[in-house]
């Protein structure tokens, strides 16, 4: 017992010392373990929500072959991003995440600018990902309501459900903060046990199973008539089709944001990032394969009258009553909370607006992940490594991560429905462009004159007096 307490206080002192070195004063309670740190990111990544949200998109943009093989490819390259982030959070274990990292890793004269740009893209991603999760939940509720009923979903009704979901989230965050930890714990358990159970149940109950050739090599282009495989190339469709996997594997920065509440953060937080990506990739692949192998009629599934191919698969496998039960359980996976109602309004008039929202979320978050990694790659002398150190692989890993982020940023802005009209335009480029131009323009016109980046607070003891010195990472000490 004494040895355990001594070990605990040793880590506590080390964590406080690490924060003091980067100008932080320990204020939050460190009562989160490595398992809890991992669990939060694993829960936020939520492979069930990501896969069910964009399953229809995946079937129409490349089909089963792109969905299955694309998941493997995306998981592989996402791990490079995770490794790059893990190395940074090990060195800078603060709740500020990418925003603080960018300022800390950049030269002093560029620190404020780096954190300004990173912060705006992270905000874009956070708002859009909440839209994706909450609007996806609204769509699933609307779809589930059609089973064995006369309910007819419309865009207006779905927006109404979406608004109600966001209001409920706002109420919980405003007046029920004390239950958020309970919800987080419940979500971790649900995701840990529920994903595997759902996949096993679908495989076990399916009347027939598709063969491996169907799952891993079937290419389908449902992007228009003619589709983009004819207008451009099959590779174009395949590249755009990996959005489902890449959108799903976002949110692992939660382990970094919770580092100040995690014991032995310089090791636990980076391990939380890596393990959440790795285990989510495995669980997600298992669930994806279970759904693809259990498709009974591909044409009927793609053109389902339920509006959601996953619903059609569950109805074919379990019948309508069983599908209702499982769809209700799937709805329990959807835990998101913030306001982003305006971003979903274009879905009233655009058939691809939801896919665009997920693209915006993916691009915004990954750019904010990539900027600190890129800065550390360009300015290695200012990157003092923590306990999690990739050593000779550090820069090659960072380079691959940055190149991958650049690649997905381009492809997820491309149109995925032919012909391109005002109703089928992928407005991702518009939203990302507005943020990029707005952030850069506001910086050069105004923000550079007053924005100083994160504040570094240093406490020193002079005699019997504690003196606090404030330093802005984007300026010289004051």
Describe the structure.
68% of the residues lie in helices and 4% in strands. The chain is mostly helical. The two termini are 46 Å apart.
Keywords:
478 residues, mainly alpha, two-stranded antiparallel sheet, two-stranded antiparallel ribbon, globular, disordered N terminus
Short description:
The protein has helices at 2-21, 34-45, 47-60, 63-91, 98-105, 108-144, 155-175, 180-205, 212-217, 228-231, 234-241, 243-248, 254-257, 265-293, 298-302, 309-331, 341-344, 353-378, 394-411, 428-450, and strands at 61-62, 220-221, 455-462, 465-472. With 478 residues, it is mainly alpha-helical.
Please state the overall shape, judged from the principal axes of the Cα atoms: globular
**Secondary structure category:** mainly alpha
Task: Compute the number of helices.
Answer: 20
Q: Mind telling me the C-alpha Rg?
A: 23 Å
* Order of strands in the sheet with most strands: 1-2
Mean pLDDT, rounded to whole units? 81
Order of helices and strands: HHHEHHHHHHEHHHHHHHHHHHEE
Helix content: 55-70%
Residue fraction in strands: under 5%
Low-confidence stretches: 1-9, 335-351, 459-470
Largest sheet: 2 strands, antiparallel
Span between termini? 46 Å
Count of beta strands: 4
């Amino acid at each position: 017992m004494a040895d355990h307490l001594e070990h605990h206080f040793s880590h506590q002192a080390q964590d406080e010392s690490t924060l003091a070195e980067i100008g932080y004063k320990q204020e939050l309670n460190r009562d989160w373990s490595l398992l809890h740190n991992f669990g939060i990111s694993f829960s936020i990544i939520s492979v069930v929500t990501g896969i069910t949200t964009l399953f229809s998109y995946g079937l129409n943009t490349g089909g089963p072959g792109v969905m299955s093989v694309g998941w493997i490819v995306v998981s592989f390259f996402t791990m490079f991003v995770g490794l790059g982030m893990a190395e940074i959070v090990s060195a800078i274990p603060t709740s500020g995440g990418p925003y603080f990292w960018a300022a800390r890793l950049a030269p002093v004269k560029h620190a404020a600018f780096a954190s300004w740009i990173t912060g705006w893209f992270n905000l874009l991603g956070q708002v859009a990902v909440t839209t994706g999760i909450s609007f996806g939940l609204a769509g699933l509720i609307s779809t589930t309501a059609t089973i064995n009923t006369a309910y007819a979903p419309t865009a207006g009704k779905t927006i109404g459900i979406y608004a109600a979901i966001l209001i409920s989230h706002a109420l919980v965050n405003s007046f029920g903060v004390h239950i958020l930890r309970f919800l987080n714990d419940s979500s971790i358990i649900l995701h840990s046990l529920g994903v595997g159970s759902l996949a096993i149940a679908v495989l076990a109950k399916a009347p027939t199973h598709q063969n491996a050739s169907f799952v891993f090599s079937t290419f389908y282009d449902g992007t228009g008539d003619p589709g983009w495989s004819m207008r451009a190339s099959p590779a174009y469709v395949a590249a755009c089709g990996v959005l489902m996997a890449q959108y799903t594997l976002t949110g692992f920065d939660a382990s970094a944001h919770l580092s100040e509440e995690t014991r032995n953060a310089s090791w636990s937080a980076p391990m939380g990032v890596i393990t959440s990506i790795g285990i989510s990739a495995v669980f997600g692949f298992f669930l994806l394969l279970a759904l693809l192998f259990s498709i009974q009629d591909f044409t009927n599934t793609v053109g389902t009258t339920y509006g959601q191919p996953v619903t059609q698969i569950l109805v074919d496998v379990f019948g309508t009553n069983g599908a209702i039960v499982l769809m209700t359980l799937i709805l329990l996976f959807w835990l998101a909370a913030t306001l982003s109602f305006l971003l979903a309004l274009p879905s009233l008039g655009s058939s691809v607006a939801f896919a665009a929202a997920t693209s915006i979320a993916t691009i915004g978050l990954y750019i904010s992940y990539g900027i600190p990694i890129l800065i550390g790659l360009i300015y290695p002398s200012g990157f003092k490594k923590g306990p999690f150190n990739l050593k000779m692989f550090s820069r090659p890993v960072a380079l691959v991560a940055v190149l991958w982020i650049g690649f997905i940023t381009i492809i997820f802005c491309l149109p995925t429905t032919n012909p391109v009209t005002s109703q089928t335009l992928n407005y991702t480029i518009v939203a990302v462009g507005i943020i990029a131009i707005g952030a850069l323009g506001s910086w050069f016109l105004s923000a550079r004159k007053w924005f100083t980046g994160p504040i570094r607070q240093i406490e020193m003891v002079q005699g019997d007096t504690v003196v606090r010195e404030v330093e802005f990472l984007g300026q010289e000490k004051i």
